[in-house]
Structure formats: structure tokens, C-alpha cells
Amino acid sequence: MVPANPGSTLNKKAITLVNHYVQEHQANSMIEIWKIPPDQNYGDPFTKALNSIEHGGYFYKLQRNQSDKRERNASRSTYVSIPTLHYTRLVVLHAPILGSLARLRVPGQPIQTHSYTTNASIPNGVSIPCENRVNPRPTVESEFDYGENSSP
Amino acid sequence: MGGHVINSSKRITYSSTAQDVSIQLLRLIAVRNELSSMTGDSNAVCTAPVTEKSFSCAGVEFLDHNGCIVTLKRALYGLKTTSRSFHEFFAECLMRIGFTPTRADPDLWYRKSDDYEGDDYMATHVDDIIIAAKRPVEYMAKIEQEFNIRNQEDLPSCYLGNSYKRDPNGHLHILSSKYLKEVLWQLKKKFGEVQKMAIPLCVREHPKLDDSPFCSEAEHKQYQHIIGVCQWLVIAGCFAINYAVSSLSRFSIAPRQRQLQLARELMGYLRKHPKRGYFTDPRPPTVPTDFERVAIKEDFGYQYSYFTKDIDPRFPEPLSAELDINIFVDGDHGHDKVTGRSITSLITLVGSTPVIWSSKRQSCVQLSTFGAEFTALKKAVEEAAALRYHLRSMGIKVEKPTPIYIDNMSVVLNGSRQSREYP
Q: In degrees to the nearest 10, what's the CA dihedral of B327, B332, B338, B339?
């Protein structure tokens, strides 16, 4: 009998098997599972049709030469996020493009901008081991973390 | 006609070919280790000793032997086992030179280099070969002693339908512009020109819900032509159309007119962006910049202490430095509005280079987003294990865990927590 996963309300055997399959690979340091925001997930455009801005944004990142970006980033560390025309998803655009897009905004609604700093401490072209990457958020301890003798 | 009533051969009659991921990794390692590439095409298929028994009656051109029974010793084009015979014949030659087939792909060969601390590689696609080595000319010369090699190209400009271009900085750009140009010309000639489009498939377009009339026979052929071309283009590196092709290829048996229109729009997208490819860059990618991970409890591993890593004793000594593997995976729950099936999508980057990409419907219906995402995660874990095995079999060091990025926190939690059923 396959033991169920206590943290999950899904008791389907198929899910349980998959759960163990994933966990055993992670327990033995073959994989690590990381949560990322949807707008940074390159897998996203493979699941649905996107408008031209989003589609271009995702695939431009994948298809361009990464070294070009590194060279550009050497002198720039701040990105500006603006809502797209559909106001459904944030698309990260370079600051100089912002001015040319200003005319596309909805009248009466100012473009809401916020900026954040990228990992500017990474030197150009240097490999960063996964475990040493700067994590902008603190590590999340599971709220379902049952103690050894406690019950859920 | 009648193929189903013919007994299948007891022998293996086909020749295996190098996997597309093998070619991608070979290119990537060539760039990283600063190896030179060389391609060639052997036209010596007929020199392979034939393994099947074929005979004929000698004609008048055999003079004194007219009327004698003659048996074939060398393969002929069109015989069942010709490609297999050549594959074995060529493999023997490569083994004499010192190459060994990798465990992951028998058509990807490696050999300890005489010139640097690493391996030289060769991939074969029946009679098309590509060599990545410090001095590939020497290997080519050795092969030429036994086989006639034509179309030899140092710094190749194309291989297996892909065009290779180098930018001024020397970065290798992979694209399918040459093939695409030919395809668009043929499409224009046969079915009329397609209009340029900005995206491969319109937003919120669901081809499955289409109820327009079915295509005529001529339109059906056009549809199948477009889908066939696009499926090859996805394999060749046009991953931007992967989702659209996967959505439309389900209707190849009986397409409707609106679906044909969508397929033509897809070609319109390719017409607008014929030179979109990707770069081969072994350095780690610059994104994602914002990620988080759930801490794993220290005793997590006891539960799975039986697990052994996939280290094959026949792997070569890892001489090359490690390459970063990053897998991005996503699932779309209930994407198919008719059957309710979800979609699994993933893209794998080795360095910054896309190596594996896929967009497929899941085989079973999931009742929750979690189920769909978790099934997608399982697929990503399988890909990670396969890719790690592949790299190890090529003599590349693989030690670090492979990060899999997903945008669903419940999946991350479930994949990272200990089951309390075990002590």
C-alpha cells in the first residue's frame, strides 16, 4: 500500500505515487523545486496563446543572445515594470521604452510604475551556483511543519 | 497496400539516428570547450556488407557467367536491411578510430582527446556526420580512408535542416531560415501566399470548439502539409510555435475551415519572423531573479534512503566542467474545453541554451490545478533525470541538483515535505 501524503487533501493513488517520485528525487539532491512568479516562468507561453507583447517578451528573452543582455546590464541595474494594455500581467520593459509607451495608457489612469533592483552584485558573465544565489525573499518554513510527536 | 499482411522481419532493419538533444548538447559543449565543428556526408551506403540473402540470375553482361546464380555481398539502395548494415559497418570504423558510443545515445560517440583534457565528440545521422573536436580534420581524414565523404564543411553553415550562423562576436546562432524559405515558397506556389501575422495563435482561440464546415479534400491536404512542416520546425528549434502546433495538430484527421485559417495564420507568423532562432550559450541564464524555496527537513532523506543515483559504471570519466541545467515547467488545468484535459509544458535550458521544449496535453483529466501542475512537475523530474544521465554519459560532470522552476506554491510544498507515515 502506498502511504498517503498527509499534507494533501488529494488521496488519489496516482497523485500519491507522483508525490513519492518527486520527493525521492528531491531527498537525494537530484532536483530542487523552486517557486517563481508566473511572469518569469519560461514554461508559461507553452501552455496558452498570448498577445503579441507577452509572446514577444517571453520568446525574445529565450531567443536573443544572453551575452548581449549581460553587456547591457553592466551599465544598468534598474528595471521598470508597467502594466500591459490588458492590465492582466506585468511585463518587464527597459526604462527607455517606457517613454514611447506612455501614449498607450488609458486616459485618466496614470501608469503605475514601480522599480526594483536586479541582482546587480553579479559580475558580468560569472556563473553563480544555485545555492549561492541571492534570494530576495526569506526561505519559507512550511506552515504545515508537524513536529515529530505532534499531530496535525 | 497490403502491408499489414506481410510478415515483419525478424531482423532489425532500421538504422538508429542521433537524438536531437544529443546534437544540441554536442553543439553546446563544442562552444563551451572551444572545439571546432565539421560536418560531412558519406555516400558509401552501398559499400556495407549485406546481411540478408539476396540472389539473382546473371544476365548477358556477365559474359561467360550468363545464367549463373549470383548472390549480393554489398548492400543496395532499397534493400530492407541496407541502412542497418551501413550503420553497423560505419560503427565498426568509428570504433577502430577510438570512438565509443555513449550510454544514452548509441549514435553519439566520444573519444578522449589527444589535444586537451576532455573528450572529442561525433554524432551520426545514418550517413550524415558532425564532429566536434580540437582537430576534426584528422578524424575526417581517418574516416575518408575507408569511406568517401562529400560536402565536407569546416565551421558548418547547416546540418540536418538547421542553419548555423555566427554573429560578429563568434556566438553560434541556430535557425531554420533556409528550410523555412523553401517551405514558404512551396506554400505560395501550391496554396497561395499567407499574410504576415504578429503571433502564432490568437489569444483565447480554442480550435477544439470550432464548428465551421469541414475542409474539402484539397484543403485537408493543405492543412496536413502545414502541420507536417510546423512539427518539423518545432523540432528544429522554432519553439515559439510549439503551443500553436500542438493545439492544431490534433485535427489533422478532419480539420475544419477555421482551423485551416489558423494554420495559415501560423505560417504567416513564420513568414514575418523567418530568422528567429536561438543562441548557443553555455553560461548560466540571467533569469529568474525572483524565486523562493521551501526548506526541506533534515530527516527528509531517511524515507528514501533506498534511492540510488543513476551513476552507470560504464560512464566515462567526467573530464568537462559542470553545465547549469534549469527546467521551467508549467501546467494549464482544464485547458481543453471539451475533454477537460490539462496541458503540460516545459523548457529546459542547459547554460542559457534551450535544449528540450514540449507542450503536450496530459493523458488523464485532473480535478484540480494542483493535480495538473503536479503531473507537469513529474514530467520535469523525468526530463531532469534523463538529461543528467545524458550529460554524464558524455563525460560531463553533474553534481549539483537540478533546479526546477514552477509557479505553483502548493506543488512546491507537496514536493518538499516529508510524509508522516514513515518514522
A: 60
Which of B314, B329, B308, B345 minimizes the C-alpha distance to B403? B329
Q: Do B276 and A128 touch (CB under 8 A)?
A: no
Q: What is the pLDDT along chain B (423 residues), one digit of tens a residue?
A: 455 666 666 777 788 889 999 999 999 999 999 899 999 988 777 788 887 788 888 988 888 888 899 888 888 887 878 888 888 899 999 999 999 999 999 999 999 988 888 899 999 988 889 999 999 999 999 999 888 888 888 778 888 878 888 877 777 889 898 899 999 999 999 988 899 999 999 887 888 888 899 999 999 999 999 999 999 999 988 999 999 999 999 999 999 999 999 999 999 999 998 888 898 888 888 777 777 776 665 556 567 777 777 788 889 999 889 999 999 999 999 888 888 899 999 999 999 899 999 999 998 888 889 889 999 999 999 999 999 999 999 999 999 999 999 998 888 888 876 544 433
Chain A residue with Cα closest to B321: A127
| Domains of chain B listed by start with CATH number | 20-160 (no CATH), 177-272 (no CATH), 281-416 (3.30.420)
Give the H/E segment covering residue B112. Answer: strand B108-112
- pTM surpassing 0.90? no
- Judged by CB atoms within 8 Å, which residues 90-109 of A form the interface with B? none
List the beta bridge partners of residue B70. Answer: B56
Q: Which of A13, A16, A36, A77 to mutate to test the interface with B (most CBs of B within 10 A)?
A: A36
The answer to whether A36 contacts B291, with C-beta atoms less than 8 Å apart, is yes
| ipTM of this complex prediction, to 2 decimal places | 0.84
State the number of CA atoms in the 13 A half-sphere of A87 facing the CB: 7
**Least CB–CB distance from B243: residue in A45, A64, A139:** A45
Q: Which stretches does DSSP call E strand in A29-112?
A: 31-35, 78-83, 90-93
Q: Which amino acid is at B272?
A: K
Task: Say whether B417 and A142 touch across the interface (CB within 8 A).
Answer: yes
Q: How far is A145 from chain B (nearest CA, A)?
A: 8
By CA distance, what is A138's nearest residue in B? B292
